[in-house]
Design a protein that fits this description.
Order of helices and strands: EEEHEEEHHEEEEHHH
Strand order of the largest sheet: 1-2-3-5-4
Largest sheet: 5 strands, antiparallel
Strand content: 15-25%
Structural class: alpha+beta
Distance between the termini: 39 Å
Helix content: 25-40%
Radius of gyration: 17 Å
Number of helices: 6
Shape: globular
């Protein structure tokens, strides 16, 4: 179904419950790295605690054939990055409707003590009935947890300044990223005109954007 930063997602069939599912696995680069496997297991535990119509559901997780997997709800639809890139910016009414549904999903995650930390159009999928669902909690943290990663895995355009500065994050981290997502839905612009060559340059571009 797709290849993401550290993982691959496959379509599969649950032979017991007779339903289609999405299976997420670490890709070949990371599948044998203990720290990545631990983060992947953490993702499954966090997603399983969030039950909401606007969040992709986790059905099960575990080990099989030497790999840790996450079995998830299979959503037949397109993510908002694909929708906008193929069809152009959304109408204000559409953009706000999808954003508010994403807010509801993030609220449910927040009530479960989770931050998403990688909100972007590619992580909001629209199903066949027009419902928005938040997916990919691969960078999620508990609200009291600290990110010890040296690398910033989230998409730079959407992350807030505090993430770039490696400062403390809270619910406002996701709010900022969702605001940048809404900007993309309305304008079709998902990057800065000039590429940032450093974190300092990226912070300056974000400051100019908000002024």
């Amino acid at each position: 179904l797709g290849i993401r930063g550290m993982s691959v997602v496959l379509r599969a069939r649950d032979l017991v419950l007779n339903r289609s599912v999405a299976i997420k696995l670490l890709n070949d680069t990371y599948r044998n790295q203990p720290e990545r496997v631990a983060r992947f297991e953490n993702e499954s535990a966090m997603m399983a605690k969030v039950r909401h119509e606007n969040v992709v559901s986790v059905y099960s997780a575990g080990w099989a054939r030497g790999q840790f997997y996450i079995a998830m709800e299979l959503v037949n639809g397109r993510d908002l990055e694909t929708v906008v890139s193929e069809s152009g910016p959304l109408t204000p009414l559409q953009a706000v409707e999808y954003t508010m549904q994403a807010v509801a999903g993030l609220q449910a995650a927040y009530k479960a003590g989770r931050l998403h930390r990688d909100m972007k159009p590619g992580n909001i999928i629209i199903d066949s009935e027009g419902h928005a669902k938040v997916l990919d909690f691969g960078l999620a943290l508990g609200q009291q947890q600290e990110d010890t990663e040296e690398i910033i895995w989230a998409t730079p355009y959407y992350v807030p300044p505090e993430t770039l500065r490696r400062d403390e994050e809270d619910a406002r981290t996701d709010i900022y990223a969702l605001g940048m997502t809404l900007r993309y839905l309305l304008t079709g612009v998902g990057e800065f005109r000039e590429s940032a060559v450093s974190v300092h340059d990226l912070l300056k571009r974000k400051q100019r954007l908000s002024s």
